[in-house]
Amino acid sequence: MSLRVVDNSHTETPHKRNPGFPLDLDWVERVRMNRSALERRAGSIGARRTVKKEYQLAWLLKAITLIDLTTLNADDTDGRVERLCAKARHPLRSDILEKLDIGDLSILPGAVCVYHRFVKTAVNALEGTGIPVAAVSTAFPHGLAPLETKLKEIEMSVADGAREIDIVIERGMVLRGDWQALYDQVRAFRKACGDAHMKTILGTGELATQTNIAKASLVCMMAGADFIKTSTGKEKVNADLVTSLTMIRMIRWFHEETAIQIGYKPAGGIATAGDALKYMALLKEELGTHWLQPHLFRFGASSLLTDIERQLEHGLTGHYAADYRQPMV
Amino acid sequence: MNKIAQIFQTLDYGPAPEGPEQAIAWLDSHDRKFGHFIHGEWTKPGKTFSSDNPANGQSLAQISDGTPSDVDAAVKAARAAFPLWSALSGYERGKYLYAIARAVQKHARLFAVLETLDNGKPIRESRDIDIPLVARHFYHHAGWAQHLSREFPDAVPYGVCGQIIPWNFPLLMLAWKIAPALAAGNTVVLKPAEFTSLTALLFAEICDRIGLPKGVVNIVTGEGDTGQAIVNHQDIDKIAFTGSTEVGKLIRAATAGTGKGLSLELGGKSPYIVFEDADIDSAIEGLVDAIWFNQGQVCCAGSRLLVQESIEERFIKKLKLRMNTLRLGDPMDKSIDIGAMVAPVQVARINDLMQRGVAEGALIYEPDGMALPGTGCFLRPALVTNVSPANTLVAEEIFGPVLVAMSFRTPEEAVALANNTKYGLAATIWSENINLALDIAPKIKAGVVWINGTNNFDAAVGFGGYKESGFGREGGREGMGAYLKPAWEKALKAAPVGKPVPARAANPLDASHVDQTAKMYIGGKQTRPDSAYTRPVLDPSGKLIGEVGEGNRKDIRNAVEAARASLGWSTTAAHTRAQILYFLAENLDYRRDEFAARIKAQTGEDGAEEVALSVERLFAFAGWADKYDGAVHNPPLRAVAAAMIEPLGVMGIVAPTSLPLLGSIALIAPALAMGNTVVLVPSSQSPLSLTDLYQVIETSDVPSGVINIVTGDSVTLAKTLTEHDGVDGLWFAGSAEASTMVEKASISNLKQTWTTRGLSYDLTDRRFEGDYFLGKSTQVKNVWIPYGA
């Protein structure tokens, strides 16, 4: 299959951004996903691959750099966001960092992810760190505001300094199989993002089947998504390994056909270091080690960091650690 | 940069070794030297050989090489234990099986580690697959033990079972053998494979600890000679063997005529079919579970990839990429996919086969830069392309991490290629189209078919092969039934020996006293015998009452051709088969007086009763045609496992000399009802009842070729039929000597046989109206159908 690049207007970054491609409905129709087989693969990854001792510590440090440290609650305030950003600046207790003896290796999260209302707050709080601010957008979490409103929201977040925009799709378009509408809308979102990278939240817990998830992933990638992301964290079903396998296989296929690397972000419910390692192993196996970099893989999480800190402390001291002894996220 | 910082960049997995300490401690507790486990005691180690860790070549323990007298002692212990064990209630036996299951679970890690040390399989597999399936098997059969009398009324255990198992799943194969045997009330003498005896010995200790009565389970270690001593032992009632087809055939020949029960689970070259509408990535991942599970040392490994031409290029490209991420190395490492082969001899054998394949034109792909450990029995995973069915690597079972790939154009061609093998153990089908998948599954001659998955196993779902992959099932109802037999079989008496019949008149000219000579009935036509000779049919006083053709090899050949060409009978609706059998019965009944008179002419007995019984028997099996059907099992997986009852195919049936009409009808009716086509050799003494039947057959809508009748000398014709590779099952009623001949001759294609061995089976008995012959004319195919939107 040869796809023509339709949009080369944006500036080149070291990582070649997804320029977007025409909607290819034949390709969408050729998608096949067998749930039982996906479950078998996803279910055995944790037993097939494991990392121990200093390998585990190194992987967990890497995991920290892949976290979009997130707060997305209706009761968020500037104070809450500032505390989150403070944690982002110092994700690890200094005594743990010293014991790790990793020299000048910088361990900072991939981004801080907030609502539009707090973008400025976060940008200010993170000044000088290089940590990007990500804004959830387009009427997160439901995505059902008027298109104009949604586009405006993206533009305002970008104007406020957000370098990453996490948009949500309208799940109904997927359930109706209206791929053209989905494509057009995501394409418009992408245009509104400009230089900001766009993560496309599918709301997988509301898409009913792995086949729907796969097709929606593909359409969003054709429309120019830089990342595809599982969930808002507000659905009843969060990210899991099976859905992740579906999505990263679509990323792999897209890469095979277009040579464009799309990022992956599972979000919602990933709370333990052990979970994070399983996701990382799945990515490494299915997409390759180089996908385990912040520009291609993120965890959307908040409590995950604390558990990683505990595991690191345990790995270094041999004692089990308590969460209240890690600076709060 | 410190190590953590380095790994932060490379994100390597690093080592993750499982500790061997507990297993080593257990070996040390036995001073690393084992005797046999007989009558609940350890014998003093005799002449021993070393059991090595194939991953590093180091000796783990010394194992005793069992002698015939060791085997004899074990059989005596098992025999002595049998009366009490079989007399226990099913509930009591079930409690022991349950206790074994619990103990295996309790010591699961120890078993897994010991298995991996001894066999070389990755610890992930022994820990997550082998040992949990072992526990599951004992749990499942604990239940069977309790429900046996209700589910298998009038069935009794064989007695002492001799069981010989392979090295690829040492403890799992032990469980598949011992659990149903014990549930049924048998006692056991089991020989593990010489490379992998250790978990069987640990299991013996478990039996001791849970208080299993002494002698119920006896473990004798050793090599091929020890196995031979078990096979040949006079006081063993049933042999169960899992291993190579080559050895399976030797065992079939050795047990011929002994009356020993026999189940064989042998080799395979199982097709793995991927249609263009499959989830391709999942099908490729499935191949990892198919051919690189246990280093490909799996009898049902999906070792022949058949991929639709339209996706072949992409599929092979993606498969090679997947092979590159397989991890090969120390099987005790938790992140290893491919461990060690069981022994150096296997590595050498496979390398040799590969060289032959390459010389015949095969191209081999192995992952770039996959390093092999410096010591130990390791082989890289390999993909073989540029091959056709003629290549050695496609035809032979490799039993290693070697996948051969071919393409097909249409579903029909996929089926033809899939069945183009002497084996028939398993098959895998990938397609997202349920119509296509369920169309293909019944067409593949294999005992297990996995749709959109592979290598699923469960105690509730039978496992076993078609064709040269063996017979008998393990798991499920059918596996349980393989350790039981009808109580009445034990009471059979010797059949009276009939008068020898002169094959031909002493002077050929004397034979022309009758005007009409009955012909053969082949392919729906009455045909002259190839030999152009006739044989006389005499009445009890020796008077010539008719002549029939003297069938020979070529008549059998023609009849088998006709029967094979008519195998569409097996897919004819059961209701239609029933109607035809009813019609046959009805038409026979119209002419009952004539048939009765013919019986009287041949035997001197009043034939009315025999004709009436024959009609009744046809009715009975017409009634069964649409009722003797399969089951849906509940494995612990979101899947339907459909146990489908399928006919054997072409059946050779050699009828007894007595009961000129019923003797044939009683045997062909169940075979036909189940969808087999038949080559029948009627009573050699009184064949006229069957030659009279041609017209009845012709007027009853029986499709041509479904029933073929060759008259002549039953032993001579039985031999040709049995040796014919196009015959899938053979029933022979006759002398012990001829039965032995039939069982021996059956090894050419390992066809299933039933012989009377000179015993008196009273076919007028209504016990033969049911599942006794239905079971013997069918085999079970288990189709796994996982689902999920």
TrEMBL record, chain A:
Which Pfam families does the UniProt record give? DeoC
Keyword field contains Amino-acid biosynthesis? no
Pathway listed: Carbohydrate degradation; 2-deoxy-D-ribose 1-phosphate degradation; D-glyceraldehyde 3-phosphate and acetaldehyde from 2-deoxy-alpha-D-ribose 1-phosphate: step 2/2
What biological process terms from GO does the record include?
carbohydrate catabolic process; deoxyribonucleotide catabolic process
The answer to whether the entry has keyword Signal is no
Query: What GO terms fall under cellular component here?
Result: cytoplasm
Entry coiled-coil feature ranges: none
Under which main EC class is this enzyme filed? lyase
Q: What is this protein called?
A: Deoxyribose-phosphate aldolase
UniProtKB/TrEMBL annotation, chain B:
Q: What GO MF annotations does this protein's record show? A: oxidoreductase activity, acting on the aldehyde or oxo group of donors, NAD or NADP as acceptor
- Record carries keyword Oxidoreductase: yes
**Any one Pfam family match given in the protein's UniProt record, by short name:** Aldedh
SUPFAM superfamilies given in the database record: ALDH-like
Boundaries of every Aldehyde dehydrogenase domain copy:
42-485, 534-753
Q: Which UniProt keywords apply?
A: Oxidation, Oxidoreductase
Q: Which InterPro entries match?
A: Ald_DH/histidinol_DH, Ald_DH_C, Ald_DH_CS_GLU, Ald_DH_N, Aldehyde_DH, Aldehyde_DH_dom
Has UniProt tagged this entry with the keyword Cytoplasm? no
Location of the active site: 265
PANTHER family noted in UniProt: ALDEHYDE DEHYDROGENASE-RELATED
Similarity comment: Belongs to the aldehyde dehydrogenase family.
How is this protein named in the record? Aldehyde dehydrogenase
Lineage of producing organism: Bacteria, Pseudomonadati, Pseudomonadota, Alphaproteobacteria, Hyphomicrobiales
